[in-house]
Design goal:
By secondary structure, the chain is α+β, with helices and mostly antiparallel strands. Helices cover 36% and strands 28% of the residues. The radius of gyration is 22 Å and the shape is globular. Bound molecules: flavin-adenine dinucleotide.
Length: 415
């Protein structure tokens, strides 16, 4: 039996982009159905670093208060190259209302968003374990979604369908909107270890040796996420060499973790691999449909930009959609809203992407190139305004300089 639901907007995907948008729409009395294929929000290794601009937005949306104690504010970033510290940034010195990124596990963020949506239940419906399998179309306009659930098929009829179904978006495929997937030259292997007692829990660490680098990200509440690069598609080779090869790779970057990696990482299933690519989608919409978040612009993990742009997308799109519905909600008005949304967002996404790609190229340098990289980091290290300018492409695109709140952070459970 097929169930039918009707709403003004159908969002496919209950990740940061989809749920933030759904909440922002429901608050504005726009009715929304979210289809989420998973039955829970339990995801590890996913989008835990949240940029200062998004922290600022989450604060304005009233979410930070709900997450009290559930996140960790980060104060510093330190880059060591060939065993020497070449760059240190102290976020608390940046003159913005929210100068610091936070480490916020996605399950906590998504649960808080879903809870907020339920407070607007007359306009907000979250259907879990519902996988979008097809688009409903009439005369070339998308008018909803077909989804598979454990109880049979569901059809959601909506004037606007939003693809918020992530980096491998099926809705983007089904929409036939053209896109290009640009692979980066290297992939990243992730693993999690207990947080080492001798490290400061508010510092991001980047360690570089030649063309190898590792990211060491304090992870709320008591562990560290470790990501290190391997050649594109190189996981098979690494695995063939066995776990000792992984241990030795990490030893070169962070000898302090030698004991922990050997006792905690006992099989390859304790690691996960991120195929790094970015996606370029020239047009984010077609009649009745708009793409947001990773579905519109997959980014790389550098400086944690995916969640940031997913949230900014949502708060940009919601008022445009609300206005379009207020004006009558015709396909032409909704298309105009989608055009304005893309126009408002693509430059900012492009800036973050360019910064990430520059950074990735720097990481990959070796030999004389590595000498140049170290010199460059040292130049930046000596100038606070330069640090601020470099980080602005990722961290400070929305906030205006003003009084900051780092001196009185919201409490985190571990200092
Ligand atoms: C290993 C890893 C580490 C990362 N670390 C960071 C980080 O530290 N900071 C950061 O900012 N970003 C990080 N990212 C990127 C970040 O996770 C994404 O950019 C962000 O989650 C994008 O949000 P989204 O809502 O667009 O997509 P997603 O978070 O991918 O959410 C998409 C949702 O759609 C659902 N879905 C998919 N297909 C369907 C379907 N057919 N029907 C119904 N539902 C569907 C999925 O279950 C999912 O819930 C990381 C990504 C990975 C993979």
């Amino acid at each position: 039996m097929t169930d039918e639901l009707t709403a003004q907007v159908c969002v496919v995907g209950g990740g940061p982009a989809g749920l933030t948008l759904a909440v922002e729409l429901a608050k504005r009395a726009v009715s929304v159905v979210v289809l989420e294929q998973s039955g829970h929000f339990d995801r590890s290794f996913r989008g835990e670093s949240v940029s200062p601009d998004s922290v600022w937005l989450l604060d304005r949306l009233g979410l930070l208060d709900r997450l009290e104690g559930g996140y960790q504010q980060m104060h510093r970033m330190e880059i060591m190259d060939a065993g020497r510290r070449v760059l240190r940034a102290d976020f608390t010195r940046f003159p913005y209302p929210h100068p610091c990124p936070v480490e916020l596990p996605q399950p906590a963020l998504l649960s808080a968003l879903a809870g907020m949506g339920e407070e607007h239940a007359e306009h907000f419906t979250l259907v879990r374990r519902a996988t979008a399998t097809g688009l409903l179309e009439e005369d070339g306009t998308v008018c909803g979604v077909r989804a598979r659930t454990p109880h049979g098929e569901v059809r959601v009829r909506a004037a606007l369908t939003v693809a918020a179904d992530g980096r491998f978006s099926k809705v983007r495929e089904m929409s036939r909107l053209p896109y290009t997937r640009v692979p980066l030259e290297r992939d990243v292997v992730w693993l999690k270890l207990p947080f080492p007692a001798q490290w400061d829990a508010r510092t991001y660490r980047i360690r570089i040796q030649g063309d190898q680098h590792g990211l060491f990200i304090p992870t709320h509440p008591d562990s560290v996420r470790v990501g290190f690069n391997i050649p594109k598609g190189g996981l098979k080779d690494l695995r063939a060499q066995g776990l000792p090869a992984l241990y030795e790779r990490l030893d070169r970057l962070a000898p302090e973790l030698s004991g922990a990696v050997r006792s905690e990482i006992r099989s390859w299933s304790d690691t996960s691999m991120l195929d790094i690519f970015t996606t370029l989608v020239p047009r984010w919409h077609r009649p009745g449909l708009v793409l947001t978040g990773d579905a519109a612009h997959t980014l790389t993990p550098i400086l944690g930009q995916g969640v940031n742009h997913a949230i900014i997308d949502a708060v940009t799109l919601a008022p445009l959609v609300q206005s379009a519905f207020r004006a009558g909600g015709t396909p032409a008005q909704l298309t105009r809203a989608a055009e304005r949304f893309q126009h408002a967002r693509e430059t900012s996404v492009g800036k973050s992407r360019a910064l990430q790609l520059r950074q990735e190229r720097l990481f990959a340098l070796h030999g004389a190139g590595a000498l140049l990289r170290r010199a460059l980091y040292r130049v930046v290290d000596h100038s606070q305004p330069l640090k601020q300018r470099v980080l602005a492409g990722a961290y400070f695109q929305l906030q205006k300089p003003g009084p900051h709140q780092a001196a009185a952070p919201r409490p985190a459970s571990r200092v």
